[in-house]
Write a structure and sequence with these properties.
- Helix 1 crosses helix 2.
- The longest helix is centred in the middle third of the chain and has 54 residues.
- It contains 2 helices and no strands.
- The chain is an all-alpha fold and 82 residues long.
- It is elongated, with a radius of gyration of 27 Å.
């Protein structure tokens, strides 16, 4: 009888520890995701502004300029491999 009380108490403690760990883990992961999204969003805004100010051609959108720049970079890289 005493052993079963110990087993039940041990199971209760284990459940509490697992639940606490899960809450901490969820908090850390969600905090990391918020930071990551903020950094990536800020970087994207900064690159869009730079491309808009310095690299777009007349009548070209930022997205079109980025695609054109990526194509030109790929051509330069494939040309230097030969």
């Amino acid at each position: 009888m005493a052993k079963s009380k110990l087993v039940k108490a041990n199971e209760k403690i284990a459940e509490g520890v697992v639940a606490g760990y899960k809450k901490i883990e969820d908090g850390v992961v969600s905090g990391y995701k918020k930071i990551e999204n903020g950094v990536v969003g800020g970087f994207s805004k900064m690159t869009d502004k730079f491309v808009d100010e310095f690299l777009t051609k007349e009548g070209e959108s930022v997205e079109e300029a980025k695609k054109r720049l990526a194509r030109e970079q790929a051509q330069r890289e494939s040309g230097s491999r030969r």
